[in-house]
TrEMBL record:
Domain MATH: 47-135
Tree of life domain: Eukaryota
TM regions (residue ranges): none
Keyword Coiled coil appears in the UniProt entry: yes
Membrane keyword on record: no
Protein name (record): MATH domain-containing protein
Length: 135
């Protein structure tokens, strides 16, 4: 069941974390406008939604890669540190390009992405400032 149009989440009867929204993980049409605004002045070359289901989170290696997927002619994968990268209080999640041998050492690609996390089988995710632009 999806929780839609939620502007604020009450935690311990306090209006904390008002920037957090909850949706079903598969409600892509509801989630994307809130985390990836459309910039009409930018050209959209490609669009893709990738889901990576992780089973047995507690058994993951300290550094784990998700499956490779292709968007806009580039191969991508998620890099996950389930116990943090240099700290142990929270997970660290990155999106990285899988470089091929033809690419120069200091090359770059520009893209906009969002990373959303679902915990266990709850099928909800909390969305805060989990998006970035690759330059």
């Amino acid at each position: 069941m999806a929780i839609k149009n939620v502007d604020k989440v009450t935690l311990d009867n306090k209006q904390e974390h008002s920037h957090i929204h909850q949706y079903s993980i598969f409600d892509t049409d509801d989630v994307l406008p809130s985390v990836l605004p459309i910039y009409k002045e930018l050209e959209q070359v490609d669009f893709y939604v990738h889901h990576w289901e992780i089973k047995e989170w507690s058994n993951l290696d300290q550094r784990t890669h998700g499956p490779v997927f292709e968007v806009a002619g580039y191969k991508w994968r998620t890099l996950l540190f389930p116990k943090g990268n240099g700290q142990h209080e929270m997970a660290s999640i990155y999106l990285e390009v899988v470089q091929n041998q033809d690419q120069k050492k200091d090359w770059a690609v520009c893209g906009q992405f969002a990373i959303m996390l679902t915990i266990d089988s709850v099928m909800k995710k909390s969305i805060g400032d989990l998006h970035d632009t690759i330059l």
